[in-house]
Design brief:
- With about 200 residues, the chain is of the alpha+beta class.
- The chain contains five helices and eleven strands; from the N terminus they run βββαββαβαββαββαβ.
- The strands form three sheets. A five-stranded antiparallel sheet has the order 2-3-6-4-5, with helices on both faces.
- Helix 2 packs across helix 3.
């Protein structure tokens, strides 16, 4: 499995207009479904007079979860085209909402699919796409006398220290890159009196 994935930084907006209807797309970086739902709630308040708030998300590159919703549009004409754009740009941890203001003229199935697809694509193309590493979080516990040995492995293996607490028992929470988990954890386990726990 690759240990990097693509996502977006912050938020961006896209727009598509057709026959008086306006499709405003917003893309967000999210790491949970709760985050996405909270954003959706805010957008429904902000654009309270819009006819539809259609969306899709794709979360977690390791344990992929996707969802799309047509919010009253004909089945498969809104949520799916939004999700397909996320998939075609190979993005994870993203949430796209397309807000539609109805212009009085029906667009038909193919017109709707094109509108939701185009608005989503515009938002993605306006976003800052970044590459992130997939990492596992581990807790290392050790006696103070082992500090130098542990720190050497942390440094040589490029582990990212998220939290540390040096008391009677020293604790460190570190992130390890997916591709080096085996090697790094084996080195740590090989140290006398060092306890390792996956968080």
């Amino acid at each position: 499995m690759k240990d990097t994935y693509k996502t977006v930084e912050g938020t961006a907006e896209g727009l598509y207009k057709e026959k008086g209807s306006k499709f405003i797309a917003r893309i967000y970086h999210v790491e949970s479904e709760e985050e996405a739902k909270a954003i959706l709630g805010k957008l429904k308040k902000e654009f309270y007079d819009a006819r539809h708030h259609c969306f899709a998300w794709r979360i977690d590159p390791r344990n992929e979860r996707t969802r799309s919703n047509d919010d009253g549009e004909p089945s498969g004409t809104a949520g799916k085209p939004i999700l397909n754009q996320i998939l075609s740009f190979e993005l994870y941890d993203v949430f796209i909402v397309v807000i539609r203001y109805f212009g009085g003229t029906k667009l038909g199935v193919s017109g709707l699919i094109n509108a939701y697809k185009s608005a989503s694509r515009d938002a993605i193309e306006n976003a800052t796409i970044i590459e992130k590493e997939i990492r596992d979080l581990y807790r290392i516990e050790f006696d103070y006398v082992m500090m130098n040995s542990v720190m050497r492995v942390v440094k040589e293996e490029n582990l990212v220290v998220k939290k540390q607490d040096f008391d009677n028992v020293c604790r460190m929470d570190v992130e390890i890159k997916l591709s080096t988990v085996q090697k790094s954890t084996n080195r740590l386990k090989g140290l006398k009196g060092v306890k390792l726990e996956k968080l």
